[in-house]
Amino acid sequence: xxxxxxxxxxxxxxxxxxxxxxxxxxxxxxxxxxxxxxxxxxxxxxxxxxxxxxxxxxxxxxxxxxxxxxxxxxxxxxxxxxxxxxxxxxxxxxxxxxxxxxxxxxxxxxxxxxxxxxxxxxxxxxxxxxxxxxxxxxxxxxxxxxxxxxxxxxxxxxxxxxxxxxxxxxxxxxxxxxxxxxxxxxxxxxxxxxxxxx
Length: 198
Description:
The protein is mainly β. It has no helices and 13 strands. Strands 1-3-5-4-6-8-7 form a seven-stranded mixed β-barrel. Strands 2-12-13-11-9-10 form a six-stranded antiparallel beta sheet, with no helix packed on it.
C-alpha cells in the first residue's frame, strides 16, 4: 500500500484506490491487491460505533473522505463490505465494488479496508465499467506492453480502446473456450479469465 500521511487530530487515514485497486493482471502476476490510486484521508465523524461500518456512507473529496449520514446531500458512496487487515491478506471485496478505502488506525481502531459502492452512476466496478478493484467477467482490457493489460470501459469511452473482453472465469486455462486469445489472472476460486478480442 502506498504510504498514508497523518493529519493533525485525525485518527485514521485512508488511501483511495479508484479505477483499479488491482487493475488487470497478466497470468504470471501474483493474485494480490495493489492500490494504484492517490492518497486520501478519512476523518471519523461519530456517525456510527465503527468508522465506515457496513451500510454507512462517506463523502467524496479531493484530499479527504468523511463519514456522513447516508441521507446527507454530501453522501457519495456506501460501504458494502469492511474487513480488518490488509487487502492482500484478507477477503476480496465484492465483485462490483467501485473503489476501496484503506484505513490505518491509531489507538483502539483496527487497520482495515472498506469496499465502497457509489450511490449513483457511474459504477466502474460493474462488468465493462472500466475500473473497480477486481477484474471480472464482462470487463474489457487493453495491452500496456511488457505483457501487461489494464482494464478499460467496454463502451470505448475510456482513455484507451478495449482490445479484449473477459468472457469466462475458470480454474484452469484448459477450460477456456477455443476463442480465447488472452488469459487474465482474476484471483479467487476461478483465477483464470478467458478473454477474446473485441
